[in-house]
Amino acid sequence: MAHTKQRGRHWLVSDVGRATALIKFDIKQQESLLKSYLADGAVIIDKTVMVCASLSQCYGDYLHALGVGEPGDVSFENSRLDNKTVDTCYKYIQLLKQQFNEALTIEASVRCVSGLRRQYQHLGSLLKQNASKSLKKTDDNDYSRAITPLLRAHTPTDWLYAVVQFANQSEASLIDYLTHMATLENQQLLHLSHAFNQQGHVHLMSAVFFYKLFPQRLFQTALHPEKLVSVKSRLSLLYEVVEMLHQTLVQLLAQRGLHPMPDYLFHGEELPHGIEIVIDDDSREAIQSAIKSWRMNTKHINDCQPGMNHLDDMVRAYKFWFNPNRLIDAVMLLEQKISVSGAELASDNTFYQQMQAVYCQLTTTECLDLYGYFANKDSCYLMRTLLVISEGHPLSWLPSLTQAEKSAIIHVYNALECVMNALRAELAARQISTAPYKRTLPARKITPGRRNRNAVTHIITLYSKQAVTTNTKLEQLFNAIEAGE
Fold first, then answer.
1. Model confidence over 363-381: pLDDT tens digits?
2. Which of 117, 14, 103, 110 lies closest to 58, judged by CA?
């Protein structure tokens, strides 16, 4: 008995005994944690795999402590890596643990420890494989649910609703969903492309394009400017999805050598001069219904970089040719996002400060490029045009304005000026001096071109706060839209 006690005391104080005792303590904690993870119905894969890796490392350390050498050098490892499921692998681990506890020789202990090290590695791999298969299966189901309505749609109205549902389901993964269309069969691709050749479908697409340019004409009752801006934003996103769907199909058909599809879509941000799209009541109602069911939004894009997408819209206003309407809409959408009304701009610096915060995210080169756009002749002439009108100077092409219409011009002018001056302030903070924007009115009367005249009409139509007639159905529609955001 005394001899036995002496052996026990020697085991406790030896370096090997101390090391293995500490490792066993870690193993017990990790195995308890793994058991709780596996028992949980919603398994957290990353954490579970991490525990498996930690256990494998612990058993490897145990082999080192026993002086066996590198774990990979053990010739009698109990591998048994033919377990195909997590359940069978975990059951085999329990068997090895039982054998380890009952081992009478050092060789048997090493064999069990080596096997446990390998089995925990194998268990982690099985968990990751299962997660990958489950995710792929889920993704495939999601893709199928999104595309199936497009394949089943026959009427233009059904097709438009299917596009909306496709966009709603894809959310931030729109590109992934479009890319997944490459897995469709040839006949399915041809069926999808057929919609872009049909007169009724093309007419409805053209109507969406028209109303994204003139959202005020979608409803017979006047709407509040903020609601019109909201409508325009949704219609723009909807048409962008239509264009991306068309482009994807064109590429896939070309890659497979199938019959090419024509392009009957409008592109850009304005209609050619003198062009009008005739739209029937059915198309108008279909588009109104599409807006009501629209749920896709891009807020997640802007949460980390507020206003960056609107800056992109500002830059696009200068691509190829100056598009004042796009610049105005981008600024007004940005102002609405920051929730500053035009009346507050003169006394409240919130919008100005927020714009500086947005510009802080840009590189100096990007700021200088944007300043070049704001300071160029096109921008200055637009601002002078708005300044002339806001100061009450008569223009032969412009009828007398109501107070609400004049206030809208002043509001937009102040918002544009705020955005442009905040950029100069940001450049000044970077020790870069810039020339003031040219706002001095010339001695002779200004004669704005067609685009600037259209911009004035655009502001009056879209942003003037006329007396709005309450329409219960429309209020319900927009309540539904806002609830979906």
1. 888 889 999 999 999 999 9
2. 117
